[in-house]
Amino acid sequence: xxxxxxxxxxxxxxxxxxxxxxxxxxxxxxxxxxxxxxxxxxxxxxxxxxxxxxxxxxxxxxxxxxxxxxxxxxxxxxxxxxxxxxxxxxxxxxxxxxxxxxxxxxxxxxxxxxxxxxxxxxxxxxxxxxxxxxxxxxxxxxxxxxxxxxxxxxxxxxxxxxxxxxxxxxxxxxxxxxxxxxxxxxxxxxxxxxxxxxxxxxxxxxxxxxxxxxxxxxxxxxxxxxxxxxxxxxxxxxxxxxxxxxxxxxxxxxxxxxxxxxxxxxxxxxxxxxxxxxxxxxxxxxxxxxxxxxxxxxxxxxxxxxxxxxxxxxxxxxxxxxxxxxxxxxxxxxxxxxxxxxxxxxxxxxxxxxxxxxxxxxxxxxxxxxxxxxxxxxxxxxxxxxxxxxxxxxxxxxxxxxxxxxxxxxxxxxxxxxxxxxxxxxxxxxxxxxxxxxxxxxxxxxxxxxxxxxxxxxxxxxxxxxxxxxxxxxxxxxxxxxxxxxxxxxxxxxxxxxxxxxxxxxxxxxxxxxxxxxxxxxxxxxxxxxxxxxxxxxxxxxxxxxxxxxxxxxxxxxxxxxxxxxxxxxxxxxxxxxxxxxxxxxxxxxxxxxxxxxxxxxxxxxxxxxxxxxxxxxxxxxxxxxxxxxxxxxxxxxxxxxxxxxxxxxxxxxxxxxxxxxxxxxxxxxxxxxxxxxxxxxxxxxxxxxxxxxxxxxxxxxxxxxxxxxxxxxxxxxxxxxxxxxxxxxxxxxxxxxxxxxxxxxxxxxxxxxxxxxxxxxxxxxxxxxxxxxxx
Length: 776
Prior knowledge:
This is DNA-binding SARP family transcriptional activator. This protein is an alpha/beta fold.
């Protein structure tokens, strides 16, 4: 083997020339054209193969990857044969003039892999993403009009649901990914319409989007912003969200009268250990009806039960004479001046003759009134005071951390008058939100209650209360550790009697995705990448990863990573300390990792391994990525492994054993590489005190190197000696000394072993004679 090959690292294969005559549409029903003529693609599985190849254009993909893309983890016995049929049919379609024995120009193969040679600009999904990236570049220089033009062109490319009708887990995952990109692009497009003064177009677009996506929380605040920018005083009707099934759901934003219960169903998990806070909130409502107001803030990270606490503590105790107004803050609420306060008042006065006040508040916040920044706040505070003077008033804002500055200013001003009026202000927020504390506006609450993660005792009590059967101590510890003190996650794990070594509960998966939904697509992509970096063998999830490694695998600068991940850190999903990133709740990275289609998981882990290796990262981190899923050890990976195996055995022996065992079991590996890696496997097993007889014996029976043969036979004999099987070890030693094939240094070792074994066998013989004599 040459030095050049031995020192080879993971490098991408050379890309062949691209074919310019093929055009492929994926943003709708899959269609393909060759030189302007549409091609008849035929069966669903054939289109699934083409879509996978198109989304990996000009890159070699293996048969295993294609099979996983079509059938997931349970392919039929005929999968390989069927795949050959699909590939052959596609070749006839894409290369109709190709001779049956020629390699073809569009769909090529080699080394067990296939490659679709098309220009990326001829695949609409790539053009769509390229236009998105182009819009980001315009955004960085503040060119809104050109950014809008790029996004308009990107959205016009869509012809329906992406990959409509294409079967298989890969196509489904891509449908979801592309649909989310389309919706995110549409939201940004609508925002730019507002910013560039095209308000009527924005309003029309947003109403269409809301009708199509009634549960998309970002759209309603955008429509409110568009209406305000257009000078319209109307309040947009929000679609009523579906009743959430998770215990930590949000109080709905729709208007509700006093005494009606919130549709949030709070399970015991979200309220574990919160009895004190419930009592204090209920007492505050009673005190307000007696004329004593105050301001209360409940702080806690996502999933700690803030919304459920409000839902349980407030509706059941509100007297009929008390008005209650609700609002739910979202990220886009920051763009609507005083929007949350307006929503609160609309809810409190819904259906009353005095709802004229709502119209006055709406007019006061409208930019068409030409008011200064201070005048609307003062006017709204005055109107709220009028309502509180009529009857006790409770205003509740869930997620006040998403409020715009004017709402926070008004909330602080109202806090100052709670001592004079029967006015109760209740807000929830994430901990450490600067704009809600003393840094900017002064103390904005009389009481601050922090919903901290549950301690070990409270978590154990919750599990024993919620679980169908009380778990044993090891299982209980496992559940508590997985939830990381998050009562919502722990409740779902407990009530479903989840086996954390198996599939996670569907309800838990939904809750985690709901908690991550408010983040932007780039932030969610980074969280998924971080989850992949924490993944290990057998569904094991590590504590976290470094920002430097995340920058390597995502090809983003560290500063950009910190900026994108800050919202997730504020929400308590991750913690960033120095260069380290840690998930606060281990179930979150598991959901992100296991929720990715199997074929995509393999591709991502392979890609991450390549990038870490290419950047000179620790070799054990490369191996961790290879072991996190069934990444095939192809020739490139095998050569990298043989180059770094000695370093790996010293730095990370246990995971090295696992990867070497996988390599030894792979019969298709080049014989020389398989031999080298099995030699190192046998040595490492012996060093770790494990049985290496099978591996060392395998090498000894196949190697042409007499020195290696001597080492391996000595290792086999030593293994039997350590296990107390002295007679077997003696037989091996006698055979080696009789043959005298191995070099002299090894013969000397065998002679020493023979002497030890004779003593053991002699002592054993004497013991047997003594036992026989005693019995006689």
